[in-house]
Amino acid sequence: MNNKRRVTVILAMAAIAPLTFTACAGGGAAPASGGDVKSLTVLDSYNNDPDKGILQASIDKCAAKVGVTIERTTVPGKDRMQTVLQRSSSKTLPDVLMLDNPEVKDVAATGALSPLSDYKVDMSAFAGNSLDAVTQDGQVYGLPLPADTLGLFYNADVLAAAGITPPKTWDELKAAAAKLTTGDQYGLAFSAAATYEGAWQFLPFMWTNGGDETKLDSPEVKGALQLYVDLVQSGSASKSVINWNQADVKDQFVAGKAAMMINGPWQIPALAKVPGVKWNTVQIPVNKPGQTPTAPLGGMVWTVPRTGDKAKQAKAAEFVACTGTEDSQMALGKARNTVPTQNGLHQKYVSEVPTMAAFTKQVEDARSRTGKLGKDWPKAATTIYTAVQLALTGGASVDEAFSKAAAG
Amino acid sequence: MLFPIYWMINASLQPSGNTLTAGIFPTNPSFAGYETAISQQGKNLITSLVVSAGTVVFSLAIAAPAAYALAQFRFRWINAALLAILISQMIPGIVIANALYAAYNDLGLLNSIPGLILADATHAIPFAILILRAFMIGIPPSLVEAARVDGAGLVRAFFSIVLPISRNSIITAGLFSFLFSWSDFLFALTLTTTQDVRPVTLGIYQYLGSEVSNWSAVMATAVLSSLPAIVLLLIAQKYIAAGATGGAVK
Amino acid sequence: MSTIERSSRQSPQLRPPKATLSARKRFSEENVAKVLFVVPAAVFLLLFFGYPVVKNITMSMQEYTTRTFFTGEAPWVGFQNYVAVFGSNLFVPALANTALFTIGSIAGQFVIGLALASFFRRRFPLSNFLRSMLLLPWLLPLIVGSATWRSILDQDSGILNRFLEALGLIQEPIPWLTSPAVALTAVIIVNIWVGIPFNVTILYGGLQDIPEELYEAAALDGATGWKAFRHITWPSLRPVVSVVLVLGVVYTIKVLDIILGLTNGGPANATQTLAVRSYQKSFIDFDFGVGAAYSNILIVISLLFALIYLRANRRAVDE
Q1: CB 3.0–4.6 Å: which of A208, A238, B181, C91 could bond B52 by disulfide?
Q2: Which of C148, C244, C246 to mutate to test the interface with B (most CBs of B within 10 A)?
Q3: Which pLDDT score is estimated for C210?
Q4: What is each CA distance from A392 to A98, A340, A398, B74, B210, in whole angstroms?
Q5: Contact C52/B95, CB-based, under 8 Å?
């Protein structure tokens, strides 16, 4: 056979090998383009419809306003951070990047984002709580999209038939849930999964009761956990809550297997598709009169990564600033059932979307998850969902659950 | 064994996409999921088929000679080679994906079918070498030697004797190369950044948001996308059967 | 068997004398050709695995966080990450779960797989079709498979509990995924389901390669059924069995998607394995150094099995 030719090919392959290694190790230089910026790249995690299309409309509007074309990439939400990190190390971050609000501080701390004040973006109209999550060392790194939070959904027909008014306190909640538990219908559904979703759902009860993520073994936090345990042990909530995510909770509610649920406004389109279920929402019940229902503030944020191309960064900031205008916030807020992050817009918003009244109030009093702990929040969240799981499965008493979870 | 598959089909026919209120049979089927899937996933399906078929061809081309060498030649370092191959199977896929992303970015292989084929082959090649070797150990050396006596070179003997005899195992290895590549999600996610080249495993994520998911479309896509693959597999099996009966090559 | 032996004994005599004359030249050329069989695979493995392996090892000795990805700075911490792993309260339970999960899955997959493969060896109508259908679990994205299983295993409305109750086998619904005592078993069952096609197909391929004459000859000697299996099937199948088992261990030990899809390591950490810990450390806590340490520990454990495989393998070659 023609061995010589083969050897040559192999030598050539061997010669490429070191090249590939250096390629792995290093990253390409950032492109330097001066002058007019004609296009921007955008990375977001609204990967499925209808949200994908709704966001596209919002992006298109602002792109037209600042005079650029947009090259958009979407990744599934749970893979967002992984993608961001990959892009960081290979210096291929997009010009405009969407992050979930608890991620902003961590990413900003790496130096990957540029502060919006560099571009004179006016953030004064935004609500203080929405800026907590995006402020690191006194600088604002992201512009919040319309926000969401958690509330109590109830099946209006079922409650009316049982002669129950929507609960306002924990005692009422327990009593109502117990009374509404009949046949294969549970009184209440919520998510206590071993994920951040589980922690996020626990926060409204914990914060409303005066608990704090900096002191997880306080009586206030344990009081909230006791409520969970009472609900599950009395049979008013299914034992399966520890394995449900929020979509499962919605499915249970829609299927008539739960009369009430803790969930967020992003479920509204799905609920609207089921004509048989008449639902309504109220704020999270409080433990004692006088407490303020305090839920976590959810929502995405637009940021401007440091790509090294100053002209593009400036254009990207212009684009991001546009998404903070009244037009853009109201349009997106109405289309996605999310609350504009400027308190000045709330009255108008509620008058146009009355179903969001309870959620709008809840957003105004909401707290950001990373406001106090910053990049240590994930650790606290892990402790919270682990403690909840331990207590609900009998792996630890309410009293010991948090210390046992923290030790893991 | 097959009940979960049936249950998935049942779910795909429920309007809600879940079986919370479903009976044993989908008495009131909804085809909305299928309509969505058919209208949106056709192109992705073709991408998946091309990438998977490409992976099979590429992996076998590289793995079969190596497997034969490791099975029949008396190299001193065979055990070291086997160990290295096994280690390659132990590395978490994400570590490889991260390294490949950086390299592909510089080589311009992102969003390309050859790029995905090469990446999927990282799983298929080591696997195929090990499997093929396990089967090729059983080939009597005399068969090849007989051909050599007739003047055939090592390479020709490999093509005319070894490959035909090993047809069964080559199809088995090819089958799994196909399946590995077909079910890959990680490389597809990491190494594609646009809609242009997008296997169906990733395409399915356009129904799975972090907040809202369209499960009936997800299930329908899964059902539909397995159809062409199963047809391919059936044809391959027929081929195996034919090979087994007609395979008394000796 | 006898044919093979005869032909190999004969072949040296048939070798033409020319070979000895030019032995030297022939030898070197032959060696080059032999090496060429391996070179493409070796180059591929080196290119695609060399860097990741080295990277994973160095990463496990660095403080590798989100910051590192942007700045490239990763302070060297020596074995501190490993100390963190071994010192974690979850390490021993995760190690035990990994062992139970791997042993349970492999035992189940292999036994059922071998039984099904033997069953399919007797041809019957539709046998090919059914065998292909067995591959279906592999054609479905794992996310769909685990979502389906989650609904099947649901404590209140899952079809499995409804079925068992209808049969009168259980009085109370089994808390498949919600009780720390049962969840690991449930996850193992699902993983066995996922692994059976792999075992059936490869073992079936191995069985196909055993010449029918061997069984015929053995039958003449009175060896049928179990005896035939022990003296013919098992020894002939050994290379295939050992590769199926070693690959099974290597793949099972790093199973992640199924556990994440079913329980995410819960309830109350009852299904935490080393692979899940590694994933969570890296991609939930963004502590990539500790995550890499976990995955290296997994690799070392797999390596032990690989060495056992190689030992068995050497014995087989020597025989």
Answers
A1: B181
A2: C148
A3: 85
A4: 35, 36, 9, 61, 25
A5: yes
Residue A311 contacts by C-beta under 8 Å, 6 or more apart in sequence? Answer: A33, A34, A35, A37
From C32, C40, C155, residue closest to A3, measured CB to CB:
C32
pLDDT confidence of residue A399:
95
Chains that touch C (3 or more CB pairs under 8 A): A, B
CATH domain B47-211+219-248 topology: MetI-like fold (1.10.3720)
At residue B246, does pLDDT exceed 70? no
Chosen from B18, B191, B205, B212 to mutate, greatest number of chain A CBs within 10 A:
B212
Confidence of residue B74 (pLDDT cuts 50, 70, 90): confident
Q: Would you state the pLDDT for residue B167?
A: 83
Interface contact A251-B20, CB threshold 8 A: yes
Q: Do C306 and B69 touch (CB under 8 A)?
A: no
Q: Which residues of B touch C243 (CB under 8 A)?
A: 130-131, 133-134
User: To 10 degrees, what angle do helices A219-233 and A377-392 make?
Assistant: 40
Listed by number, the residues of chain B in 147-206 with a beta carbon closer than 8 Å to a beta carbon of chain C are 149, 153-155, 158, 168-169, 171-172, 175-176, 179, 182-183, 185, 201, 204
Domain boundaries, chain A: 39-147+298-364, 151-295+373-407
Question: Which chain C residues are closer than 8 Å to A407 by Cβ?
Answer: 89
Residues A230-279 have pLDDT tens digits of: 999 999 999 999 999 999 999 999 999 999 999 999 999 889 888 889 99
Which strand (E) or helix (H) includes residue B123? Answer: helix B113-136
Check: CB of residue B73 under 8 Å from CB of residue C34: yes
Distances (CA, A) of B12 to A270, C60, C226: 17, 43, 44
What is the homologous superfamily of the domain A151-295+373-407 according to CATH? Periplasmic binding protein-like II (3.40.190.10)
pTM, entire model: 0.86
Q: To the nearest whole number, what is the mean pLDDT of chain C?
A: 85
pLDDT at A14 over 60: no
Complex ipTM: 0.84
- Are A382 and C285 a contacting pair at CB < 8 A? yes
**C318: confidence class by pLDDT, cuts 50, 70, 90:** low
Helix B32-72 vs helix C23-45: crossing angle, to nearest 10: 150
Q: What is C80-318's CATH superfamily?
A: MetI-like (1.10.3720.10)
C308 touches chain B (CB under 8 A): no
Nearest to A76 among B102, B103, B208 (CB): B208
Give residue limits of the domains in chain B: 47-211+219-248
